[in-house]
């Protein structure tokens, strides 16, 4: 990583303005990495702007500087640097900004195996999380990791490793976590904020969604469906439901779990999880989506029943 670090360092030192961009449907890693990187830049004397087309999910709004994240860029505004975090492809950034128009130099920092290296500088490594790369950058710059930065990095780390349960968890991940704890964070307080702040309607919606559980004949694929009608009944947003798919994967024998979410304006989102044998990144890519081998997603503009039919047919083509 040192070669890219050198180039990134030069870019950070010469830039006078920077925009950090997260991906659509941002998760803990993209928001945490974005905010931690902002603190690195700030330490270097560069105050960045932050862009996320889908804003910041409520659960991550306690993070320091989350209130600085905007979902628009002023027209004609252009930055010396645009840094994308946790996004494998330009399409994942949304369609309201055109990278080549808003930035002179694009730095792509990501850990997805299907990253398209769309940046002028690509810092792409298969680490546990993008946050692990941001952490390494902070080290490279010899910056002190303060409590605020540690909070952002820790949220990214636990959400992308499923609380240190997924295969991407390594010795480095734990060493990094140890250092974040040394920086003064309370892991209990953060976990509570991330995992223990669900509302009663949300749990009722979970129950309703669980009630839709279906499986393939051999029970190796299982899925649940959340319609607009269900979301409206419980006044929840579909982003609050992503964790549901992990429960579906937790069924013994299930190799592929799916969550079908009906959004507004005819959009349907599908989240995939796999246990051991199926590469769900490949399946998502068939539908112009992407992600990791064991966690991926895709977006559709078709009725939910049609989406389900073709996605399930595709999944069943993959031996598990
Ligand atoms: Mn990530």
SSE blueprint:
Elements: H1 2-14, E1 18-21, H2 28-43, E2 49-51, E3 69-70, E4 79-85, H3 99-102, E5 103-110, E6 121-124, H4 130-140, H5 147-160, H6 171-182, H7 187-195, H8 200-210, E7 214-215, E8 221-226, H9 228-233, H10 244-249, E9 256-262, E10 268-274, H11 280-286, E11 290-291, E12 295-300, H12 304-317
Parallel strand pairs: 1-2, 1-4, 2-3, 4-5, 5-6, 8-9
Antiparallel strand pairs: 7-8, 9-10, 10-12, 11-12
Helix pairs in contact: 2-4, 2-5, 4-5, 5-6, 5-7
The chain binds manganese (II) ion (MN).
Manganese (II) ion is lined by residues 29, 86, 111, 129-130, 160.
InterPro entries: DDH_dom, DHH_sf, DHHA1_dom, Oligoribo/pAp-PDE_c-di-AMP_PDE
Domain DDH: 19-156
GO molecular function, one term: nucleic acid binding
Q: Based on the structure given, which CATH architecture of the largest domain is correct?
A: Alpha-Beta Complex
Strand segment count: 12
Shape: globular
Arrangement of strands in the largest sheet: 3-2-1-4-5-6
Name the ligand types: manganese (II) ion
| Major sheet attributes | 6 strands, parallel
Show unreliable segments: none
How confident is the prediction overall: mean pLDDT? Answer: 95
Assign a percent range to the helix content.
25-40%
Number of domains: 2
Order of helices and strands: HEHEEEHEEHHHHHEEHHEEHEEH
CA(first)-CA(last) distance: 35 Å
What is the alpha-carbon Rg in Å? Answer: 19 Å
**CATH fold-level name of the largest domain:** inorganic pyrophosphatase (n-terminal core)
**Fourth-level CATH superfamily of the largest domain:** inorganic pyrophosphatase (n-terminal core)
The CATH class assignment of the largest domain is: Alpha Beta
Number of helices: 12
Beta-strand residue percentage: 15-25%
Q: Give the class from helix and strand content and strand pairing.
A: alpha/beta
